[in-house]
């Protein structure tokens, strides 16, 4: 048995979409609604705050910052970033704030990164409690500045901007999630509609006869309820 060949043009595609447009919209609306429900009522908001520190090297003779000192400070930024996320610093922060979490979990909340090609370090802390996020970020800066003197015998780190309590969560983002869910729902709806059309091999119109059976239509008998035979 030979496989049937389908020649689908744009008008036929639009016809399929038009015929089952309600199904596509229903799936899309359900997807957007589910995303809104999850974003607003199920996912826990996460807040992020940050503090910035600067690595400087002072010249005791004339207090002038030389070019080589700037290059050295930029290289130290990466080293200092690893120290900020060390277990030693994390344990002291946990002890000072009386937190009941392991150091590894605290480190997972921290993101340390240099600010482009500068001597500035950005310490970001994310937590479900905005006040706690601010406290952790600021305590990290305090503990790090104190420990760097002991670890590397230098005093060249200063806090520029202390962390503030964040007002808005960084995630979830309901509007973005709903937009993505809408696109995914639309794609799923279209896929199901075309799959249903492909699997439907019933004859409904004269065009279906010519298309699938390759037979010409000689005539059509209209259906009328008045001429139906009653038992």
Describe this structure in words.
- The protein is α+β, with helices and mostly antiparallel strands.
- The protein has two domains: 9-43 and 172-202, no CATH class; 47-161, Alpha-Beta Plaits.
- 54% of the residues lie in helices and 12% in strands.
- It has helices spanning 10-19, 21-42, 67-84, 87-97, 103-108, 130-152, 174-199, 206-213; strands at residues 47-55, 110-114, 120-127, 157-161.
- Strands 2-3-1-4 form a four-stranded antiparallel β-sheet.
- β2 and β3 form a beta hairpin.
- α4 crosses α6 (130-152).
- The protein starts with 9 loop residues before the first helix and ends in an 18-residue tail after the last helix.
- Mean pLDDT is 81; it is low at 1-6 and 59-65.
Short description:
This protein is of the alpha+beta class. Helices cover 54% and strands 12% of the residues. The chain folds into 2 domains: 9-43 and 172-202, no CATH class; 47-161, EIF_2_alpha (Alpha-Beta Plaits, 2-Layer Sandwich).
């Amino acid at each position: 048995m030979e496989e049937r060949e389908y020649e689908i043009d744009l008008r036929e595609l639009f016809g399929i979409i038009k015929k089952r447009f309600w199904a596509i919209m229903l799936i899309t609306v359900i997807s957007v609604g589910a995303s809104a429900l999850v974003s607003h009522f199920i996912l826990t908001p996460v807040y992020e705050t940050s503090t910035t520190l600067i690595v400087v090297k002072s010249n005791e003779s004339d207090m002038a910052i030389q070019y080589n000192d700037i290059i050295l400070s930029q290289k130290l930024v990466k080293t200092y970033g690893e120290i900020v996320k060390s277990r030693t610093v994390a344990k002291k922060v946990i002890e000072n704030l009386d937190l009941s979490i392991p150091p590894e979990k605290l480190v997972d909340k921290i993101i340390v990164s240099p600010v482009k090609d500068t001597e500035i370090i950005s310490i970001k802390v994310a937590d479900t409690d905005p006040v706690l996020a601010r406290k952790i970020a600021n305590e990290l800066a305090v503990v790090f500045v104190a420990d760097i003197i002991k670890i590397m015998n230098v005093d060249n780190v200063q806090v520029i901007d202390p962390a503030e309590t964040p007002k808005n969560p960084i995630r979830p983002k309901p509007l973005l999630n709903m937009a993505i869910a809408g696109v995914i729902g639309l794609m799923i709806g279209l896929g199901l509609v075309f799959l249903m059309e492909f699997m439907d091999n019933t004859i409904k119109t004269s065009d279906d006869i010519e298309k699938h059976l390759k037979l010409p239509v000689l005539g059509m008998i209209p259906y009328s309820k008045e001429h139906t035979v009653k038992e």
